[in-house]
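Researcher: I'd like a structural prediction for the single chain below. Treat it as a standalone chain; there are no partners to consider.
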Amino acid sequence: MKTKIYITGAAGFIGFHAAKKFLDKGFNVHGFDSINNYYDVKLKKSRLSILKKYKNFSFTKGLLENQKLLNLSVTKFKPSIIIHLAAQAGVRYSIDNPDVYLNSNIIGTFNVIKIANKIGVKHLIIGSSSSVYGANKKIPFQEIDKTDHQVSFYAATKKSTESLAHSYSSLWKLPITMLRFFTVYGPFGRPDMAYYKFTKKILEGKKIDLYNRGKMYRDYTYVDDIVDGIYKLINKIPSQNSKNKFKRQLVSSGTF
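Model: Treating it as a single chain, here is the predicted structure.
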């Protein structure tokens, strides 16, 4: 029997591509997603409709904050691997809606970690963000860099989930890998991303909005590279050190 993979955020951008990758490889996949209206719900439903064509895919709609529903869904499916990619995305949106990020990113992630520990998963993989590097000036960033100065509430919630993961990994020997994604792009991508907005403005013959007077640059990571990294990591379980505590793995996208 193929390994059972539980993926949160399965109707989201990265979650969809990850789920499809594992389904194509013959794994049994269960998706969990709230399908919220942060951006066009039709896009999320379109992704989900593709996944539902696979016989080895099942799905639960709900909020991660609903601990009872999440626990019921996970315990019924009995996965050996949980890939937690669900999160409230968007740095700017967090300025006006901080409560949403607190509930989804921190409480939701905590609920995922708790149930993963309760059922004793083989490996818990959690999506974090390059935004945790915050005001760090040293370039390029490294996983060993200190990340104490986040400059957005979104980044602060992501850093908080890393701390929660570290404590659970240390106290209960739960094998966890955190992935710091750098801006991801590709098919079925989020329409709130800059490259979509730029393309739309160009096609409409309109001016492109540039922040900070255009004095900025950003690296992008293609979604297939992200998903390939996740796929290669599922069996690379964090090892135990001499004190019998699991090491928390930190991996930045593009370094798999």
